[in-house]
Amino acid sequence: MLFVLAALGNWSWGPLRHDWVFLAAAGAIAASALAIDRYYAEHFGHVTPSLGRQRRATAASVAGVVAMIGVTTLLRSRAAWSLDLPVNPIPAVFGVLMLGYYAAVVGLRAHHVLVWGAVVLAGLLPVWTGGDPSNVGLVIAGAAAVVNGVLDHAALVRAFAAPAGPAPGPGSAGG
Amino acid sequence: MADGELVLDRLVHEPGRLAILTVLSAVTDADFVFLQRTTGLTKGNLSSHLAKLEDAGLVTIEKRFVRKKPNTSVALTAAGKRRIGRHWEQLERLKGLADNGPAPSPSAATPARRAAPVRP
After folding, report:
1. Tens digit of each residue's pLDDT, chain A (175 residues)
2. Contact: B27, A47; criterion CB under 8 Å
3. A70, A86, A89, A164: most buried, per Cβ within 10 A?
4. Partner-chain contact B30 A49, CB within 8 Å
5. Rounded distance between C-alpha atoms, residue A50 and residue B9, angstroms
């Protein structure tokens, strides 16, 4: 949602031409993120990942930020060393990073490959000639993140569905 | 227990406790709600199993308040990690025996060696 908000802010879309509206919208997104976090904690519980998984998540996040800045600048920017390709670097790089993050930290599912693979393809299609495509790229990445989140939620609900049969009891194997 | 002997740990082998310990072996800690959702156990069964595992020194249970609501956090102890790790090794060995048959040695040919006794 922040990606989409950033793009709309860059376009000075509607009320977002005022800085305070942008900040208020960003605050509302942060507040809704906290509410969503609380919903998941209450309905699905809280878990602290293993140290190995925490390290992988940190490493993937740091590498992601570095790659996002470096590779997008390399693919298309005003920098002298940029390849200046007719691609949209934000969705192309962000999609690859999300695929890498899921593969390294969470485990890739079919919908991750479908959503982020489509984002990478959209970014790499050589149709992005003309002006700076960054804002459209932000909208694509933001929309993909929302779709991916909805599908992640559906997968979580399916995985945590109530068992069909009776739960194993303390006395079932010598309790 | 002799080294290499195939013995299943009855405390760990019970399906509910095996599910709890297996979930906890993959994380640093988890709260009661998460364990209930992942294992499919009822609140009563989960409480009962956790009490047994805590008495055996396999898990630590920390009760606290999160946003003014009671929250129970559970983590494996070092002994718990060893016991569940060894138990899964034993199950893998048992599966290996089922898939490949016992090793062709005089000791492995005896029924007592081929069966997997359950340690009380």
Report:
1. 888 888 888 888 888 888 898 899 999 999 999 999 999 998 899 999 999 999 999 998 999 899 888 888 888 777 778 888 888 999 999 999 999 999 988 889 999 999 999 999 999 998 888 788 888 999 999 999 999 999 999 999 988 875 444 444 444 333 3
2. yes
3. A89
4. no
5. 25
